[in-house]
Every structure is written in C-alpha cells, then in structure tokens.
TrEMBL record:
Protein name per UniProt: Pyrroline-5-carboxylate reductase
Biochemical pathway: Amino-acid biosynthesis; L-proline biosynthesis; L-proline from L-glutamate 5-semialdehyde: step 1/1
GO cellular component assignments: cytoplasm
Major localization class: cytoplasm
Annotated ranges, domain Pyrroline-5-carboxylate reductase catalytic N-terminal: 2-94
InterPro entries assigned: 6-PGluconate_DH-like_C_sf (IPR008927), NAD(P)-bd_dom_sf (IPR036291), P5C_Rdtase_cat_N (IPR028939), P5CR-like_CS (IPR053790), P5CR_dimer (IPR029036), Pyrroline-COOH_reductase (IPR000304)
Reactions accelerated catalytically: L-proline + NAD(+) = (S)-1-pyrroline-5-carboxylate + NADH + 2 H(+); L-proline + NADP(+) = (S)-1-pyrroline-5-carboxylate + NADPH + 2 H(+)
Length: 264
C-alpha cells in the first residue's frame, strides 16, 4: 500500500501517474487538509482518502508531498506511527533526508526525490538520493514507482538543491520562454493562437531532436544559424541582453532559495 500525504498539485500528479502505470486505486491512499479536496480526490481517482495518522500506520510506502514549510508539522503528526520498516519518500524542495530522519527519530529509510510537473504526461525528470538508512532496495523501489512516469536519475544528495533549480523548476522556465516568444509574435502582428501554435510546435520539435539525436545543443543550434542570416541576428540581441548570464543567475537563485527553505 502506498500513501501520498498532502495531495496537492505534485501529489495528485504522482498519484495519477501511478494509476496510469497500473497500480489499482485500492493500493493507493491519499491525505488532504481540506474536506472538499478529499472528496474531489475520492471522486476523480477512487482512492481512499484517510488521515495522515491512518496513512502512516497502514501504508508501507509514504510519499510526502506537502510544501517544505508544512513538512515539520506533518512529520511531528505522523512520528509516533512510522515504524522503521516503512519507506518514506520526501518530495519537497530543500528538505534533506537528515531533516526527515531527525523528526521521525527512528532508523526509517528515507529517499529524497525531486520530480517535476511533466509527471502529468509521463515525461517527468525525477532525481533521487538515499538517506542514512536507505539502501539499494529502497532506491530500486523508488525507481519502480517513478520510472513509469518519466526518467529517473540517482544523484548525491549534495546535488539535490541544484537539481531542484534545474529540473524541478525547469518546466517553468520553458513556459516563461514560450510566453515571451508568443508576445514577440504578437508584436510582429501574428494572431495569438497562431503564435502559440508555432512556438509550441517549435519547442516540442527542438526538445525531441535534443533528446533523440544525441547531438550537443550547440551543434543543433549551429545547424539553424546561417551565416549572415536571421537566427544570428536574434542571437546577437540575446547576447546583448545577457540572456545566458540571466539564466546562470536565475538558476543559482533558485538553488539558494532551496537551501533557505531547508533552513526553515
Ligand atoms: N509544483 C511543482 O512543480 C513541484 C513541486 N515540488 C514539491 O512538491 C511539494 C508540493 O508542491 P505543490 O504540489 O506544488 O503544492 P500544493 O500546495 O499544491 O500541495 C501541497 C498540499 O499539501 C496539503 N497539506 C499541507 N499540510 C498538510 C497536512 N499536514 N496534512 C495533509 N495535507 C497537507 C495542502 O493542503 C496542499 O493541498 C513541495 O514540497 C514542492 O517543493 C517538487 C517538484 C515540482
Ligand atoms: O517552486 C518550488 O518551490 C517548487 C520546487 C520545484 C518546483 N516547484
């Protein structure tokens, strides 16, 4: 039995992925803070929505998907009911396995995960790290849960805040880029829906080329960039506006914010 504690956007996305991957609704429990939310989850997915304590007592795997700020409260609530034979998977930005272990106070295995919202279309990037009491079997079990909904990579926990900044938040940067490019289309007099179609198909095509060709992104970009042509005119402006430096600073800021969230 798997329980998802704090079933908001990420928790629901993970739960729907597990169901698409073949888990039965009877194998999954969810917890929610609001009654209407509990009812909506029950109705949409047919899962049992229970209290945090009941979930902690009866599920073998607990997936914690509350906000980092709510993690201490949730751990305090479930602490008396989590024996050391549970696997606890924490999906919150910034929260370390040591934080979870110290709050639970037993030798419970903890795996830290950072996934992202493309879990909704089975294209998540999930990175996982083992805590002090988690071994190969716990990492493997976590991979089995996450593989059906995307790619899974094991990384040292010291890189988790960087991964959060890069792939956890990553989809937001691409959506932001799409917004900006659609605005550019509007500036050039395109209808909004046509501009959105053009940009969306371009980003999908580029992403698939990048993933499937195995080519370095520089090679793929150079193939589009004709001497004296249109693309280099655009790239020159991006460089003039320090867009690369902005990305470096932005992702560093996201990493630092992850560290602050851990500090509470
Ligand atoms: N949204 C995203 O793209 C990503 C989010 N995350 C992480 O996932 C976690 C959740 O983020 P979201 O789903 O965006 O937030 P959210 O606010 O949609 O979901 C959190 C849910 O937990 C519930 N909750 C809080 N305390 C609770 C408690 N004691 N008992 C039961 N339910 C409780 C809230 O009512 C809410 O529904 C965060 O820790 C975030 O760092 C990770 C990767 C990507
Ligand atoms: O913005 C956030 O804090 C969360 C973590 C990664 C993506 N969203």
């Amino acid at each position: 039995m798997i329980a998802i504690l704090g079933t908001g956007k990420m928790g629901e996305a993970l739960m729907s992925g597990l169901l698409r991957a073949g888990f039965k609704s009877g194998q999954i429990m969810a917890t929610a803070r609001r009654v209407e939310r509990a009812e909506a989850l029950r109705e949409s997915y047919g899962v049992r929505v229970v209290s945090n304590i009941e979930a902690a007592k009866s599920a073998d795997t607990l997936i914690l998907t509350v906000k980092p700020q709510d993690m201490a409260g949730l751990l305090a609530e479930i602490q008396p009911y989590v024996p050391a034979d549970r696997l606890v998977i924490s999906a919150a930005a910034g929260i370390t396995t040591a934080f979870v272990e110290s709050r639970l106070g037993t030798d419970v295995p903890v795996v830290r995960v950072m996934s992202n919202t493309p879990v909704l279309v089975d294209e998540a990037m999930s990175v996982i790290s083992a805590g002090a009491h988690a071994g190969e079997e716990h990492l493997r079990h976590t991979e089995e849960l996450l593989k059906p909904v995307g790619k899974v990579l094991r990384i040292p926990e010291s890189q988790q805040d960087a991964a959060t900044a890069l792939s956890g938040s990553g989809p937001a940067y691409f959506f932001y880029l799409v917004e900006a490019m659609v605005d550019a289309g509007i500036l050039l007099g395109m209808p909004r829906s046509a501009a959105l179609d053009m940009v969306t198909q371009s980003i999908v095509g580029a992403a698939i080329m990048l993933r499937d060709s195995g080519e370095h992104p520089v090679i793929l970009r150079e193939a589009v960039t004709s001497p004296g042509g249109t693309t280099i005119a655009a790239i020159a402006e991006l460089e003039r506006h320090s867009v690369r430096a902005a990305f470096l600073a932005a992702i560093e800021a996201a990493r630092d914010r992850g560290r602050e969230l851990a500090a509470g």
